[in-house]
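USER:
Before I trust my own judgement here, I would like a peer's view. Write it directly below this note and I will take it from there.

ASSISTANT:
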Amino acid sequence: MCKVSDLLDFYSTNSLSWDKLEYGTTNIQNLHYGLIHVGLPTMVDIDKDNLPNIIDGNVPKNYELCKEGDVVFADASEDTNEVAKAVEYYNLNGKKVVCGLHTIHGRDNKNKTVVGYKGYAFSSMSFHHQIRRIAQGTKIYSINSKNFSECYVGIPSKEEQQKIADLLRLIDERIATQNKII
């Protein structure tokens, strides 16, 4: 077990609302928390998953570009089951992406995990039981990066992490294929 705050370093995010974003341009892409709640898979592949671009003139002065393996949490939700819902960047394909409104951007700079494992680890029931205990609010529940000092996640060997990530990603792909068929 590893304390999440010991595993991840956290970076600032922007507060751009939907009216500052658009689709179909080549500008920097922006991950808004609404996309985490609706539509994005646990493993984000920028070649398959469509993110909006920041409209010209709205690019923040300071930002941290996302890297493959970075994990992004939604910091707020109306439902305790959705607070800290996480996605992991699996394939950025050289695209510039930043984290936006109501997100928490984390990175394993200590290289304790493989790309593809964190998204599933932070989607586990054991992690979300911890989050439900510390989420604050009455109508809207929220967390912040400081809350991760109270949460733990299992970190097996890198070989085991890779097997877990590969299996779960294949299951996700199978589910997506079945949903298209339906």
